[in-house]
Structure formats: C-alpha cells, structure tokens
Design brief:
233 residues, alpha/beta, Rossmann fold, eight-stranded mixed sheet
C-alpha cells in the first residue's frame, strides 16, 4: 500500500517517456551510477544515445567493464561537464542532485543548461524526505539538509533566465529487499561514500528493518519528486 495517496510508479522510464520524446534522443545522465535506467532506455528506444557521467571511480570502472551500444561513460561531475555547448536533447539527474556538493549545485544546473539544446529538458528525480524507508535510512544517513538544498537550488535556477518548469510530479515507487543483508549492501554500503557504520549502528538499523520482513522479504514504497525543466530559447 502507498503511504501518502500518491500514484505508484513501478517503471520510471515509462513516466519519463510520457514527458519527453526519447526515440533518437541524445541524452546525458549526470551521476549515472550503474546506469540502469539508461541501459533500459537504449533497449527500448533504438537510435537513442546516452553519455553517462560518474565521479565514483569504482562505479566508473564497473561501467566501463559492461559496455552497451549507444552508451558512453565519462569520469566527470555535473558541476564541470567536459562536453560542448548545446549538444543534448535531454539531461537526467536521477537521485543525484542532492549528492552534488551544496556550493556547486547551482553550477551543476547551469552546466546542464549549457550542454542542452534550446528547448531541451532537464529531468530531476529526487527522493522525498518522508516515509518508513526514509526513517530507517536516516539512522545512518540523514539527508534532510542536502535534499532540501537540492530543491532550493532548483527553485533558484527557475528564477534565472535559463529555465522554465515543464512538469512537477510526485509519486511512490516500490522497493524490495530479499533480506537485511541485501538492504545493507545496496543502501548502507555504496561505493561512493563511507557511512562509518560500526557494529552498534548496524544493530540499530537491523532492529528498525526487521519488523518489515515477511516470508518473501521486505517491501517498502519510496516517495519521489520529479521536476522537469525546459531550457528557454
């Protein structure tokens, strides 16, 4: 069940495809991680191209070891995109804007505008600081301030001359974990940051997680906030 009367979205690529044309699009993903959505997009929309930027050296090495047609990986951050002006139809930031250092968020959004064609779109999907899953995560990684800062940076960017907002959408997405070990590996120990998890903190998080375990694992919904910006011109 959902927790906030929001629509349930099981495939965010479908949501994206309903907002912007993807067939044959030239796309840049800023903070691509493992590029799961990008890989699915390229399978579904032949002729599209995705350039994925990632600052995590270990994840970047994994990406290079798993190439795909139409997918190019670069080691770079959103605040300094090593690509020419006006190249892309679409820029994606999927749960990545709040990971940009706060003093550089405005610069990252300006860089996204620079590399987009006039009329191009920036799709920003950010987790909402609310819900049962967030209550567990904040025990070891409280992101209230950085998530607020990401939304404030978008608000400020919309006051400038680069952007107009094309859509503002909230939804929930399901998240499943087979057991606590899978939660620990995926959510607590990412390659790009060390949450300094000692035995006591691990036990505290496990105690909060385990009441949600059932015979098939633990199921949550995560509230998300999508803002679609269009480059003026």
């Amino acid at each position: 069940m959902t927790t906030a009367n929001l629509p349930l979205v099981t495939d965010e690529l479908e949501l994206l495809a309903g907002l912007v044309p993807l067939q044959g699009a030239d796309i840049v993903e800023l903070g691509c991680g493992a590029a799961a959505l990008a890989r699915a997009l390229l399978r579904r929309f032949a002729g599209s191209r995705v350039t994925g930027l990632e600052v995590d050296e270990r994840q970047h090495a994994k990406n290079l070891a798993a190439p795909a047609e139409g997918l190019l990986f670069l080691a770079a951050g959103a605040q300094a995109i090593p690509l020419p002006d006006g190249r892309f139809d679409l820029a994606l930031m999927l749960k990545s804007l709040h990971h940009v250092p706060r003093p550089l968020m405005a610069q990252a959004l300006a860089e996204a505008a620079r590399v987009l064609k006039p009329g191009g779109h920036l799709y920003v999907s950010e987790p909402v600081y609310a819900g049962t899953l967030n209550d567990i995560i904040k025990l070891y990684n409280d992101e209230r301030e950085v998530r607020d800062a990401a939304q404030a940076a978008l608000d400020q960017a919309l006051q400038g001359s680069h952007w107009e907002q094309a859509a503002d959408i909230r939804f929930e997405t399901p998240m499943h974990f087979a057991d606590f070990t899978s939660f620990e590996q995926k959510m607590m120990r990412p390659t790009f940051v060390d949450h300094a998890i000692d035995d006591a903190l691990l036990a505290q998080v496990r105690a909060a997680f385990m009441p949600h375990m059932g015979a098939q694992g633990a199921d949550f919904v995560r509230a998300m906030h999508v803002r679609l910006l269009r480059k003026r011109g």
